[in-house]
Amino acid sequence: MPYDILNKYTVLDLSNRLAGSFCAKLLSQYGCRVIKVEPPEGDPERTHNTPMFLHLNTGKESLTLDLKKPNGKEILKKLVNSADILIETFKPDYMKSIGLSYDDLCEINPSLIMTSITPFGQSGPNKDFDYTELTIFSMSGGMHREGLPENHPIRYAAEASQHYAGNTAAAAITSALFKKITRNQGDWIDISIQECFAGHPHQIALRAPFIYSGMSDERMIPRFMLNNGSEPYAVGTFKCKNGFISFLPLGARMWPLVAKLMEREDLVNNTKFNTPEKRFENRHELESILQKWLNTKTKEEIFEITQHVGLPGAPALEIKEVFENEQFKHREFFTTLETDDYGKLKYAGDPFRFVGKEYQKLTNSPKLGEQTEEILSNELSISKSDIEKLKNSSTI
């Protein structure tokens, strides 16, 4: 656990999907003790997406438990008795069907905070539907306007909606802790991944033209889209001497800064470029001038110049360059861990700092069932012979 802010709280992580696992990972980083409860055969992500699994489960403990078996359910209930938070990602009503609903668990521990993270929430006509990232992204309203106008819509890369939902769930849980602390009462938090992403600030901003004027936000050529079609000559990503550099000089007020960037301040009042309309009309000539200048500079040099000039711009770092970046290195953002199976691996750290709190290094994700016997024996006082029986019956 990198911090000890919430080190008095224990989380039971029953999740087997990205959003729930990421939520639990964040709580671990805040200082919670996180016990990953997975079936005896293991979380499917252990083999389906090993790199992501290792990333999402750093700092956790692993307890194998078959929740469909009576002994497995009884063990979980004993754990709930002393736990503070439970995270699950099963379909709605599944926990109820196996006798582990919020009401069932609340009778054992009234102050338990149970968080259910599902694609569409615990209610509604789609509540039982399954999902992928594509499902959520397209049904949140964000996909229809992504991509080129002459082609079909596309989604963002990776799992943006699920990470955002996990982050939202962690924030909701920490808020619920106030009620637990002040009133000793728990909560059942219903997280819809679809609603999380539909409520993402970026999506809200894109819906603004429709909300205020009924205007549909259609797909556009990226450079036109980013600058409302007015000054696209320096908007986007361009090739330079040793890679690529991106700019976002929005609005006419940026034109003098672009000219200064190119060391061509003589162009500011040039009659071919002295109005937004003329710059748009002659955008190809302007872009040619810009590209000629870019060809003489490295992305590191250009980045320094953008900072000096005051123009929004940044280098497109390659993977190797990310790990070698001096800013990341100075803040020790990446942690290298030695693993038995994969050698040395680099993990991303925390995008936040608690000032004055000592940062502790991450620890490896647990092997399947690594802490099972320790938890059962030391915390639940289950004898070695009974643990053997649980193993023989495939309960653990």
Task: Quickly describe the structure.
The chain has helices at residues 18-30, 45-48, 50-56, 70-82, 94-97, 102-108, 133-139, 160-183, 193-198, 201-213, 222-226, 255-261, 276-281, 283-294, 299-309, 319-324, 326-330, 372-379, 384-392; strands at residues 10-13, 33-38, 61-64, 85-88, 113-118, 187-192, 236-240, 243-247, 313-315, 334-339, 343-348. With 396 residues, the chain is an alpha/beta fold. It folds into 2 domains: 10-200 and 330-392, Rossmann fold (3-Layer(aba) Sandwich), CATH 3.40.50; 222-316, formyl-coa transferase, domain 3 (2-Layer Sandwich), CATH 3.30.1540.10.
Question: How is the secondary structure organized here?
Answer:
Layout: E1 10-13, H1 18-30, E2 33-38, H2 45-48, H3 50-56, E3 61-64, H4 70-82, E4 85-88, H5 94-97, H6 102-108, E5 113-118, H7 133-139, H8 160-183, E6 187-192, H9 193-198, H10 201-213, H11 222-226, E7 236-240, E8 243-247, H12 255-261, H13 276-281, H14 283-294, H15 299-309, E9 313-315, H16 319-324, H17 326-330, E10 334-339, E11 343-348, H18 372-379, H19 384-392
Parallel strand pairs: 1-2, 1-4, 2-3, 4-5, 5-6
Antiparallel strand pairs: 7-8, 8-9, 10-11
